[in-house]
Amino acid sequence: MLIGFWGAGLMGSGLLRTLLRHGHEVLIFSRDLQKAQKLASEGKGQAVASIQELAKADVLISCVARPQYLKEALLGPNGVHAAMRKGSLHIECSTIDPESALLLCESCHKQGIDYVQATLGKTPAMAEKALEPIFAGADAKALERAWPLLEELGKPVRVGSIEASCAAKLLSNLIGMTNICVLAEGFKLGTRLGLDPKVLLDVLMDTGARSFQMDTRGSMLADNTFDDVKFRLALAVKDVRLGCEMAEASKTAVPFFSEALSQFRAAEAQGLGDLDCAAVGKRDK
Questions:
Q1: Using an 8 Å Cβ cutoff, are 233 and 215 in contact?
Q2: Does one domain contain both 139 and 195?
């Protein structure tokens, strides 16, 4: 089985290393060719200069930052889907909106390609250890084909439809990113009240305030340093925006999520987009 993999960012690199550890032959495309070449050297990988070369693979896996990248490269008469052979498989791991996922699925089905939406639940470090939660949505036939590979990549869970896969990931990020805003506000208030942020972190870690985000980013908020990027703030803006748009389409009021989006947008406007998303809580020194 030849796998074509598009995406060598933080999350994509983790998934790629897992595939290479399992001995898979992988064609790797990234806009940064040197990054693709470096990853390829870790196993039976081959960096390719054009995304069209991925069309020869039996399975295409995509893990990129924004839905428009997928639509521009994969859809239409000159897109990668049109060049893929009938009976191949596309596993899509990016955080995208349900509407974009349905367009990709429709494109695949027109070409006789199976499509699985397989959004990812945690961090690049978890992806590299094959411990990443995978929210898998597709029809039964496509999921059956993809399942052995998904089990190699992480911890897949059947969530139902393609739209459900997107919704599960966007909800996870909406809740997680809003939690970061709450934590950041807590550290800001605690500092103003004279608490040492590191002492505050130790205190909170043994209370009901503890969370995955506190475990992952509490030390960043306490130290007020955000250069150890696990997830860029600019991508948090994108994900929270997509989640809020999903809520709007379902006519559901989400005031806490909407406020989190405002906070992340304000932080991005301050030039913090390339820092970790916890930089939404960056304090003046």
A1: no
A2: no
d(CA 60, CA 81): 9
| Strand ranges, E, within the chain | 2-6, 25-29, 45-47, 59-62, 89-92, 114-120, 132-137, 154-160
User: How many residues are listed for the chain in this entry?
Assistant: 285
pLDDT of residue 270: 97
19 shares its domain with 148: yes
Each residue of 249-281: b (16+ CB within 10 Å) or e?
eeeeebeebbebbebbbebbeeebbebbbbbbb
Structural domain count of the chain: 2
Range of the domain at 212: 167-281
The verdict on 154 and 59 lying in the same domain is yes
Q: What is the DSSP string of 192-222?
A: HTT--HHHHHHHHTTSTT--HHHHHHHHHHH
- Cα distance between residue 2 and residue 16, in whole Å: 13
Is the same domain home to 214 and 186?
Answer: yes
Q: Which of 107, 126, 160 is the last residue of a domain?
A: 160
Q: Is 79 helix (H, G, I), strand (E, B) or coil?
A: coil
- Angle, helices 233-249 vs 255-269, to 10°: value is 150
- Predicted TM-score (pTM) above 0.70: yes
Q: What is the DSSP letter of 94?
A: S
**CATH code: domain of residue 156:** 3.40.50.720
User: Is 135 in the same domain as 210?
Assistant: no
* Cβ atoms within 10 Å, residue 76: 12
3-state secondary structure of 260: helix
Q: What is the pLDDT of residues 9-60, one digit of tens each?
A: 999 999 999 999 999 999 999 999 999 999 999 999 999 999 999 999 999 9
Give the whole-angstrom CA distance, residue 173 versus residue 164. Answer: 14
Q: Whole-angstrom Cα distance, residue 243 to residue 237?
A: 10
